[in-house]
Design a protein that fits this description.
This protein has about 450 residues and is α/β, with parallel strands linked by helices. The protein folds into two domains: about 160 residues, Aspartate Aminotransferase, domain 1 (Alpha-Beta Complex); about 270 residues, 3-Layer(aba) Sandwich (Aspartate Aminotransferase, domain 2). It is built from 15 helices and 16 strands. It has a seven-stranded mixed beta sheet, sandwiched between helices. Strands 1-2-3-15 form a four-stranded mixed beta sheet. β2 and β3 form a beta hairpin. α3 packs antiparallel against α11. The N and C termini lie far apart (about 45 Å). The structure holds pyridoxal-5'-phosphate. The site of pyridoxal-5'-phosphate has 13 residues, from α5. It is an enzyme of class 2 (transferase). InterPro entries: Aminotrans_3, Aminotrans_3_PPA_site, BioA, PyrdxlP-dep_Trfase, PyrdxlP-dep_Trfase_major, PyrdxlP-dep_Trfase_small. Keywords: Aminotransferase, Biotin biosynthesis, Cytoplasm, Pyridoxal phosphate, S-adenosyl-L-methionine, Transferase.
Amino acid sequence: MKIQTNKDLISRSLSAVWHPCSQMKQYESFPLVPIARGSGAWLYDFDGNKYLDAVSSWWVNLFGHSNPSINAALRDQLEKLEHVMLAGFTHEPVVELSERLRELAPPGLGHCFYGSDGASATEIALKMSAHYWRNTGQPDKSQFISLQDSYHGETLGALSVTDVALFRDAYGALIKQQATVISPDWRHAEAGESSEAYALRCAGALESHLQQHHAQLAAFIIEPLVQGAAGMAMYHPAYLKRARELCDQYDVHLIADEIAVGMGRTGTMFACEQGGISPDFLLISKGITGGYLPLSIVMTSDTIYQAFYDDKTSRGFLHSHSYTGNPLACRAALATLDIFKQNEVLSENRRKAEYLNRIAAPLKNHPKVKSFRNTGMIWAFEVESPHADFAQRCFSLALSQEILIRPMGKTVYFMPPYVISESEIEILVMRTLTLVESLT
Ligand SMILES: *Cc1c(COP(=O)(O)O)cnc(C)c1O
């Protein structure tokens, strides 16, 4: 058999595969990285190089690559049932997963609707919210608001509540763009203003928007605590609490997009817990399958569910994807929840986070590093670099140091798998410090 090399796979990929979120021409100067296998926090290529996956493969991996217990659960499921349609049928993994999520989620979210990717969860929640108001006799409530710099996915409906110009502008003519309100991102606080005071000031802006527009508004969609694609913008949980109160007061749904921040990423199972709130819709994806298979879930309350429960088909929620509630994906999710249950994952993560923060002091205090921040198992900071192509340079240089980090503009972030060890944390922090020094 011909031995696979990095070089072969790169040229075949460039000729046949259109890669996501990429200007394909850039691969001429910054080559693709072929991956042969993964184990724990590491990825390995075909030429004997390895990379510490400090971004959890786009924020999805929780318990390492090729995790033995998730592998075993999937093998077992494969022997029983790979897939069956969920309209008119049901199966054990989807029932068990729905029951277990009801136990884990903030109170009141008893019903799970299934999608595939994160963006499909956003679409489902937007449609379900507007349809709820239609079913309850308020069809004018069909608009949405999101935070400035929000990201909720890249399908057309999700883009309408996404405030990232690069992803949106080319498709402007196709999108029914929705309004945004100011983000509580504490980097924008006045000098001397606490993150909490700033969050409450921003909630004031939300209040005036709701006051004026509530009659047309179906829902407010937010990424609780950390706005990922905005460059890991972080904010005080007081905003969540106040947003919940205001949405109740003005009869507007609150949609918590926990696609990136759920599953323990911010230090609690769900970020909403830190604001002490239950949203009307909770969106879960990414880490739910441990990073194995695409699956998304929209959890919602009895009140929402009951508004669709009727003799008329047209009052039902008419939405489906071919792979809705796929048994393999649900089984991977159950195996992931088992790992949370059998190990003290959240408290172990707290110890790991404290350790990282302790050894990161030289990075945090580096004169070219600004706004070093941390929530749970997410870290980010801005680097003052003279290089306009800082992100690409940093990514390439990091790979040569065996670490996979993928800056957004001049924001460097870490979002490692929870299995990262103290010695791997040291590798990550020390090598990042060296990178910062050579790029500033
Ligand atoms: C990744 C992400 C999405 C979209 O999920 P996909 O699976 O990429 O479609 C939506 N919202 C947030 C907050 C995300 O981080």
